[in-house]
Design goal:
It is built from four helices and four strands, in the order αβαβαββα. By secondary structure, it is of the alpha+beta class. The protein has one domain: Glutaredoxin (3-Layer(aba) Sandwich), CATH 3.40.30.10. Strands 2-1-3-4 form a four-stranded mixed beta sheet, sandwiched between helices. A hairpin with a 2-residue loop joins strand 3 and strand 4. The chain is globular and about 35 Å long. InterPro entries: Membr_lipoprot_lipid_attach_CS (IPR012640).
Length: about 130
């Protein structure tokens, strides 16, 4: 019985740390964000220009068509091969790249790997 209680306590501590790391990672990603929405692109290789151009085009369309109340100006690119403060792969369960994560305030609201899906997400929210 005592071993079971110790085991349960350890499990709760580990899961608590994981949730804490997730909250800290999100705080780190959003620390300079002043707007409602922010977009973060995670990759494990250099992105080709066509992907970056497509992403910029979709963000411009979202902003120009006023699909958000406040323009999306916070867009970051994070290469998971670089040394980062957090293990984003584990925290956000990233397994294919590139991955586009959209945060609304401090909540993760959308994940995709296609720029068209990003546009459609905001278009649908505005309907």
């Amino acid at each position: 019985m005592k071993k079971l209680l110790i085991f349960i306590s350890l499990i709760l501590m580990v899961s608590g740390c994981t949730q804490d790391d997730s909250a800290k990672a999100i705080d780190e990603l959003l620390k300079n964000n002043k707007n409602v929405f922010s977009v973060h692109v995670f990759t494990n290789k250099s992105l080709d220009d066509s992907f970056i151009d497509s992403l910029q085009e979709k963000i411009n369309d979202i902003n120009n068509q006023q699909l958000v109340t406040q323009a999306i100006t916070n867009i970051s690119f994070i290469d998971i091969r670089d040394k980062n403060k957090f293990d984003y792969e584990k925290i956000f369960n990233l397994n294919t790249y590139p991955q586009i994560l959209v945060f609304q305030n401090k909540e993760l609201v959308f994940i995709t790997n296609k720029t068209d899906d990003l546009y459609h997400f905001f278009k649908k929210r505005n309907s």
